[in-house]
Amino acid sequence: MSTLPPRQRLGHLMRSLAKHLPGQLEGLLENARFKDGAAALQRLADPTHAEKALARMSPEEAGWLADLLTERWSWIADIQLEPEVAIVAPEELWIGAEPIRLPLSLAAVGLDEGFEAVWEGAVLPSPPASSATLLARPPEGKAPGIAKVRAQVRASVKGQRCVLIAQVQVALRRPSVVVSDDRRRLLAQDHAGRPAVGCRLEIGPDVHLTGAGGLVELEVPAPPGVSLKLEGIPAGRIPGDNP
Q1: Which positions of the chain have pLDDT values less than 70?
Q2: Alpha carbon 168 to chain centroid distance?
Q3: How far apart are CA 132 and CA 87, in angstroms?
Q4: Displacement of CA 167 from its chain's centroid (Å)
Q5: How far apart are the first and last CA of the chain?
Q6: Of 19, 30, 132, 182, whose CB count within 10 A is highest?
Q7: From CA 184, how far away is CA 178, in angstroms rounded?
Q8: All residues at 6 or more sequence positions from 160 whose CB lies less than 8 Å from its CB, including other chains
Q9: For residue 139, what pLDDT is reported?
């Protein structure tokens, strides 16, 4: 099974499918009966269309669709995947006042063993290697923060040398929690005002999972003065004087 992250795996599969399937079907797509299918394959080959489609999917949805396409392709022809490489990194990082260092690695399909990469962007300086260390700095102001990383991968495919490019963007989010006057409703978001949905919010010793819009509703008011943490990152305290 591919070791690529779900969205990259689906994008790679779509490009490989668009390149190889028409030839495998030996002109069948030229038949008017398969006009819609041929048009769909052309859309898969369009990078702009593919990127927009992938951006709308969750990793779980992308993984499910990649499994489905792989299965359906195997029903009618041998699967032929193009060489591919991707940076394995989280889609987002919650970050406090200090920079975060995080290991990065490469996932590859169809490459010979022994490849290495020259890393650029938000990484610590290092000699060419198959791994690197992300250096994520806290975003300033209210603008969305992004850590961009690029890897120029020197590899070989069946003995033939090649160079592949892998890129990734990691969203950087500083936590913020808005507390209602009655201390029963807490709205978790990031520094840019984007809701923190499905995130772990710690209110003192109690842990809650944020719902739609980043909201947590309590049955009783939160005690004033207790600490708040969003995804393990300090996010202030419940306002009010301690009793």
Answers
A1: 1-2, 24, 26-41, 45, 241-243
A2: 8
A3: 10
A4: 11
A5: 57
A6: 132
A7: 11
A8: none
A9: 92
Measured in whole angstroms, the distance separating CA 147 from the mean position of its chain's CA atoms is 12
Q: CA–CA separation, 239 vs 96, rounded Å?
A: 20
Tokens of 229: 């943490």
Q: Distance (Å, rounded) from C-alpha 182 to C-alpha 197?
A: 22
CA distance 105 to 199: 25
- CATH class of this structure's domain 84-173: mainly beta
> Which backbone phi and psi does 57 adopt, to 5 degrees?
-95, 145
* Contact between 106 and 150 (Cβ < 8 Å): no
Q: For the CA atoms of the chain, what is the radius of gyration?
A: 23
Cα(238)–Cα(31) distance, integer angstroms: 67
DSSP 221: P
Q: Which two tokens stand for residue 49?
A: 């269309």
The alpha carbon of 146 is separated from its chain's Cα centroid by a whole number of angstroms, namely: 12
Q: Is 5 helix (H, G, I), strand (E, B) or coil?
A: coil
**Are 164 and 219 contacting, i.e. CB atoms less than 8 angstroms apart?**
no
Query: From start to end of 52-144, where are the E strands?
Result: 84-88, 92-94, 100-109, 116-121, 131-136
DSSP 141: T
pTM of the model: 0.81
d(CA 111, CA 159): 9
Helix (H) or strand (E) holding 184: none
Sheet holding 84-88, edge to edge: 84-88, 100-109, 131-136
